[in-house]
Amino acid sequence: MTDDTTGTHGAVLQDTAPGGEHPLVELRGAGKSYGNVRALHGVDLSVRPGRVTCVLGDNGAGKSTLIKIISGLHQHTEGEFLVDGAPVRFSTPREALDQGIATVYQDLAVVPLMPVWRNFFLGSEMTKGPWPVRRLDIERMKRTADEELRNMGIVLDDLEQPIGTLSGGQRQCVAIARAVYFGARVLILDEPTAALGVKQSGVVLKYIAMARDRGLGVIFITHNPHHAYMVGDHFSVLRLGTLELSAARSDVSLEELTNHMAGGTELAALKHELAQVRGVDVQELPEESDLQAPATASPEGKT
Amino acid sequence: MDRSSHHRPRRIVPLVAVAAAAALALAGCSSGSGGKKAEEGGGDGASAGKANTPQMTVALVTHQAPGDTFWDIVRKGAEAAAAKDNVKLVYSADPNAGNQANLVQNAIDQKVDGIAVTLAKPDALKSVLGKAEKAGIPVVGLNSGLSDWKDLGLLEFFGQDESVAGEAFGKKLNEVGAKNTVCVIHEQGNVGLTQRCDGLKKTFEGTTQILNVNGVDMPSVKSTITAKLKQDSAIDYVATLGAPFAPTAVQSVGDAGSKAKVATFDLNKDLTKAIQAGDIEFAVDQQPYLQGYLAVDGLWLYKNNGNYSGGGEQPVLTGPAFVDKSNVDAVSEYAAKGTR
Amino acid sequence: MSMTRQAEPAVTPPPAPGPKANDGRTTRRTPVRRLLARPEVGVFLGVVVVLVFFLIAAPPMRDSSSMANILYQSSTIGIMALPVALLMIGGEVDLSAGVAVVTSALTASMLAYQLSMNVWVGVIAALAVSLAVGMFNGWFLMKTGLPSFLVTLGTFLILQGINLAVTKTITGNVATDDISDMDGFAQAKALFASSFELGGVQVKITIVWWIVFAALAAWVLLRTKYGNWIFAVGGNKESARAVGVPVNFTKISLYMLVGFGAWFVGMHQLFSFNTVQSGEGVGQELIYIAAAVIGGCLMTGGYGSAIGPVFGAFMFGMVQQGIVYAGWNPDWFKAFLGVMLLGAVLINLWVQRTATRR
Question: Residues in domain ABC transporter (chain A) (predicted)?
C-alpha cells in the first residue's frame, strides 16, 4: 500500500537531514511556565527517525504544553530544545513546519466547512501563473490529494465535500496523509485515537506504523497505554508536568506501563483504601514495591 | 509544494507605485478654480456691540441629531446674541427625549440664569420643566413645541409652526400651478417632517403623495425619488423637507426624464446657488438663526428689563419665509456664511 | 450508496450513538444537495421569486431604465457588501463600514477644498486614510483578541465623532463645501460617478465597477491562495494558524479591503453629489452586513461567496425600489426587509445543515 514515490514531493528537507548522529528533535531539561504556574519542568525527550516516541499522561499532565513547544505555538522557558542537534526557539508554527515538524491536532486538524482538497493543501497551496494572476492549481491539487489519500487507503468520490462530513478517523487520516505528503520528518500526533472507536483507532495506529516505516520520527501523544504499546519504541509518562517514566520498549512491559499511566504510586496507595470496601477487586493493582521508575520524578513542579 | 512565500516582497511594488503617484499629484497640482482660495472671507454673522449688563449663563438644549446643518445655524444665532448680550452660552443636544430631559436637569443643577429648550416631545420634558419653574429659572421655547409651550409654563416661544409652514408651502404650490406633488420624508416617523407634509396636503389643491427615503444614504435617496417619478409620471413638483435633499431630487428628476420641478423646506448656501441657477424653484425658510438669536436675546431682555416677547401670550413666528428667484440674491450672501 | 469505499475491510466507523442510516458512513451527496451547498443558491432563488413578484405587481418596473435605477442603488450597497462579505467569511464584522464611507468622502473633499489642491490629491489622501482605518481595525483586533463587534463599534463611534467634529472645525458647517468647480473634478467624476448610454438607457458607472469588483472578488476567493486563507481563518482560526496560514496578515488585509470599498463608495458619493453631509452613513454598516448575510455568508465565518452578496445587494435595492414602483405604502419597507432577512438566514441555516449533515 505504501510506495516510495510518496512522501518525497515536498521534501526539500530530506537531503538536509543529518545521518542520525543527532536525534531529529531533542528536549533537555525543558520546561514552561505561564507566569507563576509551571506547566512543564525538566523534561528530556528525543525523537529519532523511524521510531515512535509515545508521550503518555493523564489530563493536565503537561502533554499539550509539550507539543505546543515542539510545534512552535509556545516557547519553552527553561532547558534546551534542539532540532538536528542545534538549539532552536520557534516563534510560529510555520517555522516548525519549515524544519519538517508537523503537528496533527485532535481538534484543530482541519477547517470543517472547507472541502477536503482545500484542507489537504491549506497553508501550502499549489499555485500556477505569474504574480498578479497567480492562482491555485486546483486540478493538480485535487489529483494529488486523491492519490495521497488512496495511498492511505481512503477513497473519496467527492473531494469537494466539506471535511466536516468525514468521520473522525478519516479526518485524522487526512491530516496524517497531509503531513506525510508535505515532507514532515517529525510527526506530532495529539491524541489521534482519543475520540475514536476500536476499529478506527486500529486504522490510525496502522498509519502511525506506516509513517514510522517511511523513516519519520513520530511523537504519539495518548492516554491509552494499549494503543501506545502497539506501535511505540520509547515511552515517556508525564505526571504533573514532570517525567514520571522514560523507558525504551525493551525496558518496560505493557503491564508496568499501564500501572505507571494509571497513576502509579498513587494507585498503589489507593489499593489499601479500596481493599476496605467490599466489591472492589484490588487483586490486580500493583504494590508500591513493584514500581521502579527509571526516571525519577521530582516532587516540585506544579501542585 | 510552493510552501514558502518567496513572492512576499513583491507586494511592495504597488505600494511604491501609489506613493509615487501621490507624490506626483501633490507636486503638480493645486486647483486653479474653486476651493477655499476662491471663497471670499466674510464676517462672523451679524454682530452688534456688547452689552455691559452683568454676565448671565444660558443653557440651550435642543434635540439636534449629530450632523444636521439646520441646528448649526440655530446655534450660530444663539452665539451671536450671547456675544452681544454678555451671555455665557452652554449648548447641549440629544435627539432622544429622555436624554434631552437629563440635559435640562443638568442645566438646572448648574443653576443657570435661563434655559432655552426645543420641545420635540413635550411630554418627556414636562416634569423637568416643572423643576426649572420651581427653581425659579426662566425657560423659553424654540423651534418645536408651538402648541405646548404655554401649557408647560414657558415664558415665550420662537419658532415656526411646522403645520403652518406646510400650509404656506401648499398655498405657494397652488400659486405656481402645481397639480401633483410628492412630499419626500427623509426620516421616517419624525413628527416635524410629518407635520410639514400634512400641512402641505391640507392647503394644496392637487394630489399629494408621501415618499419615505433613507436620509443617511444619498444614493438611495436619489434612486428612490427616481423610482417614484417613474412610477407616477404625472408628478410635476417634488417637495423635499431638508436642504441637502433638494439637489439630489434635481438629479433624480434628470435621471427619470421627468418634467417635475423641485422645491424645498429649509435653506443652505448650495440651495441659494441652485435657486439662482433656476434648478430649484423656491425654498421655505424658518430662519433658524433668528430662533437661536431671539431665544437668547429674549431671556436677556426678561432678566434685565422684564420683557415678554409675544406678550407671553402669542408665539413669535420666525417663518415661513419664502426664498425664490425674486429675493435670492439678497439672501445668498448670508447663506454663504452659514447664518441663513 | 456509500460515499467512501475503503480499501481495508477493517476500516469502519465507530458504532455511532443514536439512529443512523446504513452503516454510519456518509451517504453520497446527491447533485441537488451539492447544488444546495453552494452559498449563493438560496439568495438566487429568493431574487428570482421577488423579481417575478414585482414585475407582476409593479408595471413601471418592467421598464429597462427602472432596472438601471434599481441596479444603481444596489451597486452602491453592493460595492461595500463585497469586502464586508469577504471579511465575514474571514470570521469578522466591521461596524465602522458605514461611517468609514463618509470619512473617506469628507477627507477627500475637505483636503482638496481647504488647500485648494487638485481634487485627485484629496482622492489619494482619502484612500490612504481609509486603508489606515482598516489597518487599525485589523491590527487592534489581532493585538487585543477582543471580539470584532466591540472593536469596530469603538471605531464606528470614533469615526462618527471625528466626521462631525473635524468637519465643523474646518468648514464651520456640518457639510463640506461644493468642490464641483475645482480642477480634476471632471476626471474624477468620470471615474467614480459618470453614466453612459446602453441601449437607450442611462447606466451608472458604479454598476460596471460593481460587476468588475464582484468578478475579482469571486476569483480571489475561489482561485487564489489568499481566498483559501480567508475561508480558513474564518472557519477555524487556530487550525489555520497551526498549518501555517498567516492569520494576522489575512485578517488585517481584509479590514483594509473594507477600507478600499469605503473609499470607492465615498468617492462616488462625493463626485456624485459634490458635497458631503458629515452625519450620513450611520446605519449603513448594517445594510452591508445584511446584504452579505442575505447573500449566504455565515456570520460565524468560514462560509459564503462573493456572488451571493451581489444578489443580496440586488435583493435589497429591488425590494426598496420595488415598493415605490408598486406604489405601495412605503411605511412597510423596513418590516418587509426584516422578514426577508430572517427568511434568508433560515434558508442559510437549512442549507448549511443539509450540506454538512453526515
Answer: 25-265
